[in-house]
Automatic annotation (TrEMBL):
Residues annotated as domain Methyltransferase: 35-124
GO MF assignments: methyltransferase activity
EC number: 2.1.1.-
Parts of the chain that traverse the membrane: none
Keyword entries, A-Z: Methyltransferase, Transferase
Name the record gives this protein: Class I SAM-dependent methyltransferase
InterPro entries on file: Methyltransf_25, SAM-dependent_MTases_sf
Highest taxon of the lineage: Bacteria
A Pfam cross-reference name: Methyltransf_25
C-alpha cells in the first residue's frame, strides 16, 4: 500500500506557484497558442496556460493523474484536453511544448531535445524543466540517491547541450533551496499523514520505512547537490 504522496503538492517538482507564473509570463502571450505538455502529470502548469487562453493538450501515461487533471479543469472552469498515453508517441506541432521533469521518457535529455525541435512551430518555445548537479556529488551521497552521476551534467553543460541541439536560450531559471525544501516536505507529508491516521495498520512499519528512506535520500543524498533548471528555449529554422 502506498499513501497518496502528491495531494499536498501543486507541482511534482521544486516549483513555486510564483515561479510557475513567471515562467508563463516569459513564454509571452499565450492566448490562441497551442501548448502541449508531454508527461504532464496532473497538469497544473498546463491548466495555468489554458487559463491564459492557450489551446492546451496534456499527455501522460498515468491514468490517475490524467483523471485528476480533468477534474481540476472542470472545477476551475478551464478548457484543456488531457489524454492518457505515451507522450513520446505524440507527432503533432505546437507553439509551446512543455517537458517538465519528463525528459527521461525519451531516455536522455539530448534525445528529448532532438526529438522535439521538429515539433515546434515557427517562433515556438520549449519550456524544459531538468535536473543538474549544483555541486559534484560524493560517493556517499550518490549511494543514497536513485540516480547516477552520469544521468545529469552541470547547469552550463545543460545549456550548452541545448545550444548543440540547435536551440537558443530565452530564459534560464533555477529552483531555490526553499522551493526544493518545500517540495520535498510536501511530498513526504503524504507518508506522515497516513502514518498518523493509521497507527495500527499492518503496513505501518513498512510505510515508516518508506518515509524514512525518502527523507534519507533527500537529506543525505541530493540536498544542496541536485539542482532543477527551468529553461525557455527557441529553435531557429533548421537548414538543409
Amino acid at each position: 500500500m502506498i499513501p497518496p504522496l502528491h495531494e499536498d503538492l501543486d507541482f511534482n517538482c521544486p516549483l513555486s506557484s510564483e515561479r510557475a507564473d513567471r515562467l508563463l509570463d516569459h513564454l509571452g502571450p499565450l492566448a490562441g497558442n497551442h501548448v502541449v505538455d508531454l508527461g504532464c502529470g496532473w497538469g497544473e502548469l498546463l491548466l495555468r496556460a489554458a487559463a491564459r487562453g492557450a489551446v492546451a493538450l496534456g499527455i501522460d501515461q498515468d491514468a490517475d493523474a490524467i483523471a485528476h487533471a480533468r477534474a481540476s479543469a472542470t472545477a476551475r472552469g478551464v478548457t484543456a484536453a488531457f489524454e492518457t498515453g505515451d507522450a513520446t508517441a505524440w507527432t503533432g506541432t505546437a507553439d509551446v511544448i512543455v517537458v517538465n521533469g519528463s525528459t527521461h521518457i525519451w531516455s536522455t535529455t539530448e534525445g528529448a531535445l532532438n526529438t522535439l525541435r521538429g515539433s515546434l512551430r515557427p517562433a515556438g518555445r520549449l519550456l524544459m524543466g531538468e535536473c543538474y548537479w549544483r555541486t559534484e556529488p560524493t560517493t556517499a551521497q550518490l549511494a543514497e540517491m536513485p540516480m547516477t552521476r552520469e544521468e545529469y551534467g552541470t547547469l552550463p553543460q545543460l545549456v550548452d547541450l541545448a545550444l548543440t541541439c540547435g536551440y537558443r536560450p530565452l530564459h534560464i531559471a533555477e529552483a531555490s533551496p526553499d522551493e526544493w525544501n518545500d517540495f520535498q516536505s510536501r511530498h513526504a507529508l503524504g507518508y506522515e499523514k497516513w502514518l498518523a491516521a493509521n497507527p495500527t495498520h499492518p503496513e505501518h512499519a513498512a510505510i515508516t520505512t518508506k518515509a524514512d528512506n525518502h527523507r534519507r535520500a533527500w537529506l543525505h543524498g541530493w540536498h544542496g547537490v541536485l539542482g532543477m533548471a527551468y529553461l525557455i528555449l527557441w529553435a531557429p529554422p533548421m537548414t538543409t
